[in-house]
Amino acid sequence: MKGKFIVFEGIDGAGCGTQTENLKERLNAILSQPVLHLRYPTYNDPIGVSIHEFLHKKFYIGPDIQFLLYSINILKDMDDIRDAQSRNRVILADRYFTTTLSYQCAQGFPEKKALSFARLFNVVKPDVVFYLKISPDVSVKRKRKEKVELDRYEENKKFQDLVSKRYDDMAKRNIFAKKWIIINGEKGIEEISDEIFSMVKKYLRI
After folding, report:
1. Residue 186: partners with Cβ closer than 8 Å, 6 or more residues away
2. Cα–Cα dist 43/54, whole Å
3. What CATH number has the domain spanning 5-204?
4. 108 exposed, middle or buried (CB, 10 Å; 0-12, 13-18, 19+)?
5. Given 4, 23, 62, 192, which is the most exposed site by the fewest CB atoms within 10 A?
């Protein structure tokens, strides 16, 4: 049996990083093999540096080039993901290609073209996506509390609303995942963690 691939998604401030970390700690305490923990975008390579500079308004690029940069940032880990699956390890990702399907497609990049790219480059499809659903108002409020200077996505409530609607639609259609599970991301952190851990234990039969 292949190792299960679980992704966390949501608009900015939804808590994807926190919930991925919490689930990783809980699973590592009970599994025989440590989980493979991924986070996107990564900023420790030239592609990631370009993404960071774009987000912090050093320059502007359109949705097509954004899509390519974010996708390449993810493609570098495909071998690691497949290797972990073959070894029956659980893979957890704080955002993934599903983020690009939401953020860049919300700006007009065609979904069909994005999914064709994924097929062409054999992007691994997640087993489960936990969609942490919050409102755009909560998104901006959380990010402003978290840091002084917001990036071009975080500060734009209108854009967060567009992305939120994209996520709602993708979850409804189970786009690029075997299953999407919608979680109320406005509940308390521990309550959300408990809810997710309970579902994952049943899913993994542990």
Report:
1. 133, 134, 135, 138
2. 12
3. 3.40.50.300
4. exposed
5. 62
Sheet containing strand 179-184, edge to edge, reads 36-39, 91-94, 5-9, 128-133, 179-184
Measure the CA–CA gap between 158 and 161, rounded to whole angstroms.
Answer: 5
Enter the tokens of residue 172: 């409804």
Instruction: Determine the 3-state secondary structure of 115 from DSSP.
Output: helix
pLDDT tens by residue, 38-48: 999 999 999 99
Alpha carbon 88 to chain centroid distance? 21
- Name the E strands within 29-75: 36-39
Residue 150, both tokens: 């917001």
User: Domains of the chain: which residue ranges?
Assistant: 5-204
What's the CA gap between 79 and 71, in Å, rounded? 15
Q: What angle do CA 51, 55, 56 make, to 5 degrees?
A: 120
